[in-house]
Design goal:
151 residues; mainly alpha; Arc Repressor Mutant, subunit A; two-stranded antiparallel sheet; 5 helices
Length: 151
């Protein structure tokens, strides 16, 4: 969760939500987008049910509105909540392997790759093999034309 202070626009929308979301107090839709940003910070709860837009402050939002700062997390939760930079794919793989080795599980046996199917070569025009084929011929219209010439 982000712990940056809110900017002036967000603070204005936070006050507006605390005052009950008066529709005449704000014009346009930018306040709704700002309210979504406050929802991402868990300071507000935004709903849009049945076409009616509304927002309410969360407990953290009320605390921020009253004190101008976020609620201080407990020390053990702070370390669990903000783990630091995310491990790379290789680091995660090495961590899994270390846990597997420490638990005494046998290493997985890698499966050998399957051989690729040989590509079929096109038949040479000089050496065609006899192939049995079936044709279905459908005559949908027969038309004849006759022309007689008189001079």
């Amino acid at each position: 969760m982000r712990r940056e202070l809110v900017n002036e626009r967000q603070l204005t929308v936070l006050r507006w939500i605390a005052d009950g979301c008066d529709p005449e107090a704000m014009t346009g839709d930018t306040h709704k987008h700002t309210a979504r940003a406050l929802e991402n910070r868990r300071l507000a709860k935004v709903s849009r049910r049945g076409g009616a837009w509304g927002a309410t402050l969360t407990d953290d939002g009320r605390y921020y509105f009253e004190h101008g700062r976020y609620v201080d997390p407990p020390p053990e939760a702070a370390s669990a909540e903000m783990p630091g930079p995310r491990a790379t794919r290789t680091e995660r793989l090495l961590q899994r392997q270390a846990r597997r080795i420490a638990s005494g599980r046998p290493s997985p046996v890698p499966t050998p790759p399957r051989p690729r199917a040989a590509r079929k070569q096109p038949a040479s025009s000089t050496r065609l093999e006899p192939i049995s084929m079936r044709y279905k011929i459908v005559v949908s219209r027969v038309q004849t034309a006759a022309r007689t010439g008189t001079e």
